[in-house]
Amino acid sequence: MLLRSQHTGSERFADRSDVELFRTIRESPARAETAFRELYSRLAGNIYAYCRCLAWRRDESDDLFQETFARLYESALQGRAVTNVSGYAIKIARNLYLNMQRDKKPTVIIEDDTLSMQDVPHERTEMLELIHMAMELLSDDYREAFFLREFADLPYNEIAEIMNLTNVNVRIRVTRAREKIRGILQPYIAEYEQEQ
């Protein structure tokens, strides 16, 4: 007697492309939730990091992240033709952030935003804080281009499409962002090397 292996819904979708999962959300209502869960598990890390890059305040980035996935789901239900789901999700996040900035009212926020960095060596924690500080000092345009290239690992042409720029302008922004970060971190790196 042969036993047929049982597969969970997510296992059945693991070998599907992002575009196929996106289409399944509309075309198969019975499997839409499972398809969206698989898509979410693939994209959530990069999209959340991108939202944190755009909106440094945790509450804003969390709202931006949730709204991005809500809009992504709505777009799938509407049958929007998408050839790069990850890039499309980043574009949704970017547009939502720009709308947030446009509609933003001036406020004063006092935030106790402490990160728990357990089991991370002190030197590494210090360097991560310095990199975070250096990125905060970049203009929004430079920070976004730098993040998309260095952390999201997107090619220049996709970044250009997301930011509505030419490839040349994206390369310039990434290069200038690298130079600025290097300039900001250089004194700290020199001090660290002297201590070693």
**Number of E-state strands:** 0
Unreliable runs, pLDDT <50, ≥5 residues?
Answer: 1-8, 107-121
Note the beta-strand portion.
Answer: under 5%
Helix fraction? over 70%
Overall mean pLDDT: 81
The backbone outline, from C-alpha atoms, is elongated
Find the structural class using helix and strand composition: mainly alpha
Task: Please give the radius of gyration in angstroms.
Answer: 20 Å
Number of helices: 9
- Please write the string of helix (H) and strand (E) elements: HHHHHHHHH
**Ends: how far apart?**
67 Å
Main sheet makeup: none
How does this structure look, described?
There is one protein chain. The relative contact order is 0.09. The protein is built from 9 helices and no strands. α3 (32-54) packs antiparallel against α4 and α5 packs parallel to α8 (156-163). Mean pLDDT is 81; it is low at 1-8 and 107-121. It starts with 8 loop residues before the first helix and ends with a helix. The longest helix has 29 residues, at 167-195. With 196 residues, it is mostly helical. The protein has helices at residues 9-13, 18-27, 32-54, 58-77, 85-103, 122-136, 140-150, 156-163, 167-195.
